[in-house]
Amino acid sequence: MLIRLDPSHETPLFEQLASGIRASIIDGRLSGGERLPAARELAASLDLNVHTVLRAYHRLRDEHLIELHRGRGAIVSVRVGGRSALAGAVHDLVDEAKNHELPEAALLALVREAYRSAPQASGVLRPMPTR
After folding, report:
1. How far apart are the C-alpha atoms of 122 and 108, rounded to whole Å?
2. Prediction pTM value
3. Which of 27, 44, 115, 123 registers the highest number of CB atoms within 10 A of its CB?
């Protein structure tokens, strides 16, 4: 697992770490049941405080992407399955936003609003309404 952190970036290190792990889960580089490095081990390898790693792990646990078990560590809890298409769509969305010089905060606000206003998934694909 290769994760790059930029201490000079405005995004907190724990969020950069969580984002890197999240991306690895969604695009399939990490799979369900795979064990993540122990917090102390990862902190040492990235030259971070162990609490920074734990905060990232807790964020991912709250998103139901990993499970945390005392003595057993962090384990990826989701099976990626069809999410690789989702990862591709996200990368395309980000590329398009950058092409239009849309700030990150504006893109995130658009995604957040779309996510909140979308109907609850029922597991059945429905055709998109025409306008």
Report:
1. 25
2. 0.65
3. 27
